Amino acid sequence: MRQLDPASAVMLYLEGTGHHHHLMSVYVIEPGVLGTGAEIVRAHVIERLAGSPSFDARVVDVPGSLTRPYLVPDTEFDPEDHVRMGSIPGDGSWRAACAEIARAFDEPMDLARPLWDVRILSGIVPSERFPAGASLLLIKVHHAAMDGLGIVRFAGRLLDARPAPVARRAHAPRPTEQQRHSTAALIGDSASRAPGAFARFMADTFRTIGAQRRFRDALAAGTVEPRPVAAPVTRLNDTTSGEHVFNGMHVPLAEAQRCRDLVEGATINDVALAAISGGIQRYLAELGEAPAGDLICGVPRSLHGEDIEEGVNKITGMSVYLHNTCLDPVERLRRIHASTTAEKHRTSVHREAELGHLILRLPPAIIRPLTIAETRATATKTTETSLSTVATNMPRGRAPLYFLGNEVRETYSLLPMNSSIGAKHEITSLGDRLFISINADSAAIPDTERYLAHIAAAHAELVEATAPARPEASLL
């Protein structure tokens, strides 16, 4: 039994805002998975995930919402109910696969049972993109159970760094409490934690007051930049349909590395943000909706360090100007790098000045309605927004990955929508390719293929800028 950390609890409360708050990782793999045999696949998934702290953990509320919910072992759950296999409906095209990915993502999770599901789907037909065809491995978890890097590690339990034969991993039984967790036990544990929680809250309050004073002094001295807070509202903020779309693209990682070298200190993530920025401006301009001002991208930043914990949310949020109105691709990359650098500094040195971490520690009876009211208020804004979109980075590594001996060809993730943020991107790399995906409310981006084509064109502009200048023709 363990209590949800404050950030994870808020991910649960966000279910009350009208948007499901789960994550999904997508692995496009070689087509032979289901030929392995359904029972072997199920046994592989269950055995590999059994070592996770989220494997059998379900959410239990404390009566009266006096304190944050708990994750308790569900000794009666059947893991086979969490593993499904099937085929992709329709013509088996990548477009049909994307539609099925979005449909699977839109299915609500049953919060009364452990917060994960795995689905394996076959039937992507051979094409230029997938010469031998492909299958899908979809791993869905609730955000209350883990953050983005947590789901990468969770999904990674199913994967290997070498092809068949696959060596099974033996997991020692995790210590679990076999008795049912009674209401009295939860209240008792909460009561025992209350004095320490109050003391930590007061200490955090005084620490935040001091941090805010230092932050104001740093702003006055010009050693830190304020967090971007106002951008024009665009269709990317639309969440009215409630139905989502998905698509993904990839470019050679070597291209992105050459683009990175255009600006001293720039990162691969900066390069991807520059492509996304240029793509957004192109897409909106084509629709006659080009924003006159720069948009703001939320960029989650991990606080895990070297050791990634699956069962918690350890993230903070950066707000990065996309500089989408800058038409020169190299200058856009330079400005984005400057914005990300400033936000990394602010969130590293002055993170304690944020009031958010204090608010998260309020009792659920207070924070839950506050969360719902705040998101609804944000959704009513019509001219300015604090976030235009979101882009997160979940690296998978350079080594090839295999699921039951079948190589992973592409990988993406889908992020939950929030009120007024109707489009989210994931940036990742695997092997020698950089992947960028979009999942969005269908009202915000009805045509994902066209949208990604604009991102690809913006990336191509950067690649072109890396080409050596042609020598002038001789006049002789």
Automatic annotation (TrEMBL):
<dbReference type="GO" id="GO:0005886">
    <property type="term" value="C:plasma membrane"/>
</dbReference>
<dbReference type="InterPro" id="IPR009721">
    <property type="entry name" value="O-acyltransferase_WSD1_C"/>
</dbReference>
<dbReference type="InterPro" id="IPR004255">
    <property type="entry name" value="O-acyltransferase_WSD1_N"/>
</dbReference>
<dbReference type="InterPro" id="IPR023213">
    <property type="entry name" value="CAT-like_dom_sf"/>
</dbReference>
<comment type="pathway">
    <text>Lipid metabolism.</text>
</comment>
<dbReference type="GO" id="GO:0004144">
    <property type="term" value="F:diacylglycerol O-acyltransferase activity"/>
</dbReference>
<dbReference type="GO" id="GO:0006071">
    <property type="term" value="P:glycerol metabolic process"/>
</dbReference>
<dbReference type="GO" id="GO:0051701">
    <property type="term" value="P:biological process involved in interaction with host"/>
</dbReference>
<comment type="similarity">
    <text>Belongs to the long-chain O-acyltransferase family.</text>
</comment>
<keyword id="KW-0012">Acyltransferase</keyword>
<feature type="domain" description="O-acyltransferase WSD1-like N-terminal">
    <location>
        <begin position="4"/>
        <end position="272"/>
    </location>
</feature>
<comment type="pathway">
    <text>Glycerolipid metabolism; triacylglycerol biosynthesis.</text>
</comment>
<dbReference type="GO" id="GO:0071731">
    <property type="term" value="P:response to nitric oxide"/>
</dbReference>
<keyword id="KW-0808">Transferase</keyword>
<keyword id="KW-0443">Lipid metabolism</keyword>
<dbReference type="GO" id="GO:0001666">
    <property type="term" value="P:response to hypoxia"/>
</dbReference>
<keyword id="KW-0319">Glycerol metabolism</keyword>
<dbReference type="InterPro" id="IPR045034">
    <property type="entry name" value="O-acyltransferase_WSD1-like"/>
</dbReference>
<dbReference type="GO" id="GO:0019432">
    <property type="term" value="P:triglyceride biosynthetic process"/>
</dbReference>
<dbReference type="Pfam" id="PF06974">
    <property type="entry name" value="WS_DGAT_C"/>
</dbReference>
<feature type="domain" description="O-acyltransferase WSD1 C-terminal">
    <location>
        <begin position="313"/>
        <end position="460"/>
    </location>
</feature>
<dbReference type="Pfam" id="PF03007">
    <property type="entry name" value="WS_DGAT_cat"/>
</dbReference>
<protein>
    <recommendedName>
        <fullName>diacylglycerol O-acyltransferase</fullName>
        <ecNumber>2.3.1.20</ecNumber>
    </recommendedName>
</protein>
<keyword id="KW-0444">Lipid biosynthesis</keyword>
